């Protein structure tokens, strides 16, 4: 895993820098997500390079912050997790960090563990959240095939107190696969192939959701987007951030470009340079110049939608809910399609305007032939 190797490289570099500079006892705190047993690696490096009279304690204090709400998540944390050695010195170090958090976090919300439990808990928490999203996304495919509404199904099962309602919103927004892949790697290293395969399936289901959504776009546009213009509204991986890491928009855009589409892209926060960089990166693109010619980045949604055959909504920006879709419809090629990958639009109102609307986990319109013929019996 290249990502894990890069993490270990930076962790090792930081540890060597601390050992070089430190002149007195230090408490070293892991804050971000790190590979499990990274604390052990840090301590080995520090111990091998420590100066006389200098000792170290390593604490694991993973953050549980989300982009766009990070400050609120820090101030109003559900819990603070601190892991350290089960020795008197280790417990004293834990208490030192606890005393800092207690300035704004009640002590009962501070949970202390051993170092390894703390490191694994961050990976496990993200993996469990991804599992819930993976589960509801798998059910969204069943809903579309049966006529059920995934939002209604999610509400119904969320009312069960054993399950709860959080992270049951089907969409193309996916929880980061990075931590799950770390967990897969750990399981493989521990010779737990069945456990590794289980978590790998969560990753595979999340990837399937993106592929399935994009396939629906192509199928709806008469099974080809070659020579057609598609507008992508939203490029960030979620609203209120300009971050594009693991954004589903990259997968959607790449697939459409590979199929010969011309793309018009608008996002209120993501810089034009970032969009071009993401779509011409060697990992997703073999012909950067060809891709650049097929992409135009716009500064407003209305210009981006003019003369397009379809709109694909990839980020749940609030402004997309209030656009004048009557105006947009009249400026688009007909038939005009909207693919709502975040389930945020008023689908009935769009259908009334004349749009052909597709979303995730709900069948909004029967196929044209079925509607015109009054049923499938006319399909001889």
UniProtKB/TrEMBL annotation:
Pathway: Nucleotide-sugar biosynthesis; UDP-alpha-D-glucuronate biosynthesis; UDP-alpha-D-glucuronate from UDP-alpha-D-glucose: step 1/1. It comes from the Eukaryota. Its EC number is 1.1.1.22. InterPro entries: 6-PGluconate_DH-like_C_sf (IPR008927), NAD(P)-bd_dom_sf (IPR036291), UDP-Glc/GDP-Man (IPR017476), UDP-Glc/GDP-Man_DH_C (IPR014027), UDP-Glc/GDP-Man_DH_C_sf (IPR036220), UDP-Glc/GDP-Man_DH_dimer (IPR014026), UDP-Glc/GDP-Man_DH_N (IPR001732), UDPglc_DH_bac (IPR028357). GO terms for cellular component: nucleus. The keyword NAD applies. Involved in the biosynthesis of glycosaminoglycans; hyaluronan, chondroitin sulfate, and heparan sulfate. This is UDP-glucose 6-dehydrogenase. It comes from Tenebrio molitor (Yellow mealworm beetle).
């Amino acid at each position: 895993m290249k990502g894990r190797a890069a993490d270990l490289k930076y962790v090792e570099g930081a540890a060597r820098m601390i050992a070089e500079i430190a002149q007195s006892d230090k408490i070293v705190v892991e804050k971000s997500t790190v590979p499990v047993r990274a604390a052990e690696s840090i301590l080995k490096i520090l111990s091998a390079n420590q100066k006389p009279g200098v000792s170290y304690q390593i604490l694991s204090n993973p953050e549980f912050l989300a982009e766009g709400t990070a400050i609120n998540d820090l101030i109003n944390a559900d819990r603070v997790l601190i892991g350290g050695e089960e020795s008197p010195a280790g417990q004293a170090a834990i208490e030192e960090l606890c005393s800092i958090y207690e300035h704004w976090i009640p002590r009962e919300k501070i949970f202390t563990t051993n170092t390894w439990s703390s490191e694994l808990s961050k990976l496990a928490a993200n993996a469990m959240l991804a599992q819930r999203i993976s589960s509801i996304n798998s059910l969204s495919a069943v809903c579309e095939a049966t006529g059920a509404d995934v939002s209604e199904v999610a509400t119904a099962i969320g009312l069960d107190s054993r399950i709860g309602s959080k992270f049951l919103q089907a969409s193309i927004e996916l929880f980061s696969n990075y931590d799950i892949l770390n967990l897969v790697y750990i399981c493989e290293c521990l010779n737990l192939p069945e456990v590794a395969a289980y978590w790998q399936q969560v990753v595979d289901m999340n990837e399937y959701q993106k592929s399935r959504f994009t396939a629906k776009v192509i199928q709806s546009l008469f099974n080809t987007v070659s020579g057609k213009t598609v507008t992508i509204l939203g490029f960030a991986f979620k609203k209120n951030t300009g971050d594009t890491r693991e954004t589903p928009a990259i997968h959607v855009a790449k697939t459409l470009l590979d199929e010969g589409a011309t793309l018009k892209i608008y996002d209120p926060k993501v810089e034009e340079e970032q969009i071009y960089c993401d779509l011409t990166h060697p990992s997703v693109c073999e012909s950067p110049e060809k891709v650049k010619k097929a992409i135009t980045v716009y500064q407003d949604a209305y210009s981006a939608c003019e003369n397009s055959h379809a709109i694909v909504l990839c980020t749940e920006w609030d402004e997309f809910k209030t656009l004048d879709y009557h105006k947009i419809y009249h400026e688009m090629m007909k038939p005009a399609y909207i693919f709502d990958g975040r389930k945020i639009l008023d689908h009935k109102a769009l259908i009334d305007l004349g749009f052909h609307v597709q979303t995730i986990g709900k069948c909004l319109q029967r196929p044209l032939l079925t509607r015109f013929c009054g049923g499938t019996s006319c399909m001889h």
